């Protein structure tokens, strides 16, 4: 059978209507158009239909119907992965399975252990509000993305935040998955019918299966346990801003011992000027095809009292007084560079762009950085996310290359390094006017040029927009690609779960 031929769609939808109800199968033009929208280069990709399951049993019914009719599905959580693809499917004619609309429950909360069991639709804002309602004893690690983003969806895409619980997948424990063959799987101790440790013991008997469902398309995750961080009584931030682009290497070298020793407990955000300022203002003299000038950048820096690079982090403790010596120690550490200006917690709280970083260290979601979408008209945004070792020279070399490539394509260089002990995720945001064909084409070319340049440096991305997932998979070794395909053949033999996502399986073409 030709998978996902349009002729099969009515049969599939009839079966699904009988299983989950007609109210939860939508085919209206307005709906499918909205689900096809992205902020990426190229055209939108509306699905033929959107279905909204309300339980794991209904997900099983949808997957079984897809297998029976040869229909490709594209499951999403809340569809708020802006700059990665939003709600749009990766292939033509894939039916969107929106888990966020109805499967948005916090199924259990263990207040002794600090564990929340959540469905895919539980958002960062929802989790934060629930924790506050329950006494504000715990906090969830948040991203820079929309507060409406899915806690579970972000973890499954290797998302991360800024607190000591920054690795979101590492903070999951025990999942429930509907495999592509329709079987229901519970990982870890959840495989034991009488399990009491399902969301407490990460590594149980036998192979560790959870990782198979991170950045893959082998099944649909319908719930998972999340470990939550106890909320400290006091949180104090620190920040330093540096005037010159080439200060970057020395800043990274200064960050590394602070993180390797564990002295600074948070990830450290190292942002360039335009990453911060694009959330505060729009392009000062937008002309299609022209990047901002160095003089215009300096004017913006002076207006907002920030330099070319700003680094921040936070300490936790029993009181502000207890934290004060730690802040002084890190202040002295950066002062040894002989340049840079210290920004106190109080000053940071007066600056919206720095206050949003402080909120992230405190587990409070914020929409602030999404304001970058208004930097240029036209709503184009794509993320390029290479990882870079915390090496002074390599970070500086790769940063110079990024700036050169983006400027040559008429785009601005917006960059944030999220710095750990040995490794930093380098988040680029490409911003452009999608309504101008030449700019849209330039953004696509810039992304590909960045990917080629970083590949030459031996550096790979951690995530990818849907337009480029097949490309990034093609860069990996033959054994890796064959193994991913072999697992797909076993767990999803008909290839009905999002083929083409992450470059695994073959998506149908229009």
From TrEMBL:
Keywords: FAD, Flavoprotein. One of its GO terms (molecular function) is FAD binding. It comes from the Bacteria. The keyword Ribonucleoprotein does not apply. PROSITE patterns: FAD_PCMH (PS51387). Residues 43-231 form the FAD-binding PCMH-type domain. InterPro entries: Cytok_DH_C_sf, FAD-bd_PCMH, FAD-bd_PCMH-like_sf, FAD-bd_PCMH_sub1, FAD-bd_PCMH_sub2, FAD-linked_Oxase-like_C, Oxid_FAD_bind_N, Vanillyl_alc_oxidase_C-sub2. GO terms for biological process: lactate catabolic process. This is FAD-binding oxidoreductase.
